[in-house]
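input
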Amino acid sequence: MTPPDEVMRAVEAVLFAAEAPLTVQEIGSHVGAGDIRAALYALADDYGPRGINLVRRGERWHFETAGDMAHFLRRDREEPRKLSRAGTETLAIIAYHEPVTRAEIESIRGVQISKGTLDVLMEAGWIRPAGRREVPGRPLTFATTQAFLDHFGLASRRDLPGIDDLRAAGLLDPVDLALENAVSGENEDEVESDGDKV
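output
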């Protein structure tokens, strides 16, 4: 391991003393000249195997306890409140389709959602109002927040699992798989029947 240079030391000091996660520009305003990004990535590598890690969430950087060390810091284990199935589905729809209106969420889920579901997600700080859609009635849209990324350990929404990841983890409902197979089977039948016509 090479010893840190002055820029790395300055970046480390600024982040250590910061009350909230900082962007590269905010760090640069304290540190001055130097390759801030290179220093951040070098520090992240250096801290990787330690008890605290330097992580990027969205466009902001901060130190946090390594995931496998968090249990040492908990004296009283709080039983986390479980999110209802409706809440989980609503949060997933917002994360994958944002910005999305309440009517669009209901259309994707196939059922109405109670106002309480959105309230719970907003109280958790995971979703926020994201403006109004420029259509008749101007419905309110919802999007995820930085707190959502932080809670689920995501650098950005691009890190959300894809369908192959969900299938590999066994998280897809067998009904979803059966429906997907039925749809793909219909498409194959159409291709075969088109081939017969030629």
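quick obs: The two ends are 67 Å apart (CA to CA).
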